[in-house]
Write a structure and sequence with these properties.
Elements (H helix, E strand, L loop, with lengths): L1 H5 L2 E2 L7 H8 L15 E2 L12 H4 L9 E2 L3 E5 L6 E5 L6 E2 L9 H10 L7 E4 L6 H8 L3 E4 L4 H12 L7
Parallel strand pairs: 7-8
Antiparallel strand pairs: 1-2, 3-6, 4-5
Helix pairs in contact: 4-5, 5-6
Length: about 170
């Protein structure tokens, strides 16, 4: 369906400053510049796409948590040279119970768990589990899992979200 909407396209590649890179002025110095993606053809599905998690999926299992406004303005050291940076979003502030900034869709994480061919009964380690979407996917796929995160608020969100998966599903 996505390819039908986008039609067939051809990527152009980026050949700017190729002479400078050949002369040693590139990031790593010298060598030939190679662009493996130049001139490939196909529809938009050749790029992996997945819609973001819905608000109901995002807040699943977080019923007892307080709603918080997600920060839409980020400030701090954002540049390599430590200059102050500011990014402003034009969206209004939105309240969520799950305040993790990068929640992945459950369908995507289920797909990735099966793609990696972790066997049923195998253990999946997620050392940066955030709000626990990978752990939820593992529970649905009958894989054992270990989730680690350095933020106690996110660990609590992950625990609640995983516990929201009914045992009858397993």
């Amino acid at each position: 369906m996505l390819d039908e909407q986008s039609g067939e396209r051809k990527s152009a590649g980026n050949y700017k400053n190729i002479e400078m890179a050949k002369q040693g002025g590139g990031i790593f110095g010298g060598g030939e510049v190679q662009n493996n993606y130049a001139n490939d053809t196909g529809g938009a599905s050749r790029f992996f796409y997945c819609a973001k998690a819905s608000k109901s999926e995002r807040n699943r299992g977080c019923d007892g948590l307080e709603e918080k406004i997600m920060k839409q303005n980020f400030t701090g050291k954002t540049c390599i040279d430590n200059r102050e940076g500011r990014v402003e979003h034009k969206r209004p502030n939105v309240k969520f119970k799950n305040t993790h900034p990068t929640i992945k869709p459950l369908a995507l994480m289920k797909y990735l768990c099966t793609l990696t061919k972790t066997p049923t009964g195998g253990i999946v380690l997620d050392p940066f589990c955030g709000s626990g979407t990978t752990l939820m996917a593992c529970k649905k796929l009958k894989r054992d899992y270990i989730g680690i995160d350095n933020n106690s608020e996110y660990c609590e969100i992950a625990r609640r979200r995983v516990n929201a998966i009914p045992e009858s599903f397993i």
